[in-house]
């Protein structure tokens, strides 16, 4: 019986790795109730900056000029973070264990040309934004000075619901943390390619973010990445 159970678990894991874990998409359900949806410009697939150059030039920068970043740059950063790259299977730019995709990305826009200040949820399906809270909400991400001065912040929220049901809460949390690192590095390297700067931040105000973004009990704020022009 033990051997049979082990075999069944192994076959299940193999099948999930091949076809991808297909949870119920909480972000799609949330999207249905949004009032303001903004289509993002199509992301570019080519850059004059090589991966090697981006790796060499990436630095953590906490001060920014007053110049706004553009909606096109925001589009590129969000695509780098969680954009869909294989529509037929829903696969994205950052790897995710058994294609579970537990991350929910939110944009805190304060000085983005062509986009009113506010907190927006990024919807990978259709590459668009959904307004969650209007007005400048950057101070609700945390108390670090760069959180208030960066033109935009990308916040990482994890929803463990689906993966925890299949693999347990400890595994779900570990996978989400790993995926956050994958995705955030994508953003930081894309910033270099766009001529922007930023820094990743783990010290965030969870309570304020929960309130601002109207998160459920199953959603947990994890991380944030800033984006701006160099001073």
Question: Can you walk through the features of this model?
Answer:
- It contains 8 helices and 11 strands.
- It has one domain (24-227): NADH Oxidase (3-Layer(aba) Sandwich).
- Strand 3 (84-86) and strand 4 (91-92) form a beta hairpin.
- With 231 residues, it is an alpha+beta fold.
- The radius of gyration is 18 Å and the shape is globular.
- Mean pLDDT is 88; it is low at 1-34.
- It has helices at residues 2-19, 26-31, 51-57, 71-82, 145-149, 161-167, 169-194, 206-213, and strands spanning 37-39, 69-70, 84-86, 91-92, 103-109, 112-113, 118-123, 128-134, 152-159, 200-201, 219-227.
- The strands form 3 sheets. The protein has a 7-stranded antiparallel β-sheet, sandwiched between helices. A two-stranded parallel sheet has the order 2-6.
- Helix 3 crosses helix 7 (169-194), helix 4 (71-82) runs antiparallel to helix 7 (169-194) and helix 6 (161-167) packs across helix 7 (169-194).
Write the layout of secondary structure elements.
Elements: H1 2-19, H2 26-31, E1 37-39, H3 51-57, E2 69-70, H4 71-82, E3 84-86, E4 91-92, E5 103-109, E6 112-113, E7 118-123, E8 128-134, H5 145-149, E9 152-159, H6 161-167, H7 169-194, E10 200-201, H8 206-213, E11 219-227
Parallel strand pairs: 2-6
Antiparallel strand pairs: 1-8, 3-4, 5-7, 5-9, 7-8, 9-11, 10-11
């Amino acid at each position: 019986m033990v051997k049979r159970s082990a075999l069944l678990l192994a076959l299940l894991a193999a099948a999930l790795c091949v076809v991808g874990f297909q949870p119920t998409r909480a972000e799609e359900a949330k999207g249905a109730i949004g009032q303001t949806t903004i289509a993002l410009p199509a992301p570019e697939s080519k850059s004059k900056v090589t991966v090697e150059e981006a790796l060499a030039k990436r630095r953590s920068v906490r001060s920014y000029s007053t110049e706004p970043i553009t909606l096109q740059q925001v589009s590129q950063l969000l695509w780098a973070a969680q954009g869909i790259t294989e529509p037929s299977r829903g696969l994205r730019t950052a790897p995710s264990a058994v294609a579970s995709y537990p991350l929910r990305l939110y944009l805190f826009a304060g000085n983005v040309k062509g986009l009113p200040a506010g907190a927006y949820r990024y919807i990978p399906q259709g590459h668009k934004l959904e307004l969650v809270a209007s007005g400048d909400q950057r101070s609700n991400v945390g108390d670090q000075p760069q959180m208030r001065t960066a033109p935009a912040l990308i916040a990482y929220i994890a929803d463990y619901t689906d993966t925890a049901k299949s693999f347990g809460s400890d595994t779900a949390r570990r996978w989400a943390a790993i995926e956050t690192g994958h995705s955030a590095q994508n953003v930081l390297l894309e910033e270099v390619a766009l001529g922007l700067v930023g820094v990743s931040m783990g010290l965030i105000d969870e309570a304020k973010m929960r309130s601002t973004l109207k998160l459920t009990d199953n959603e947990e704020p994890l991380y944030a990445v800033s984006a701006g022009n160099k001073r």
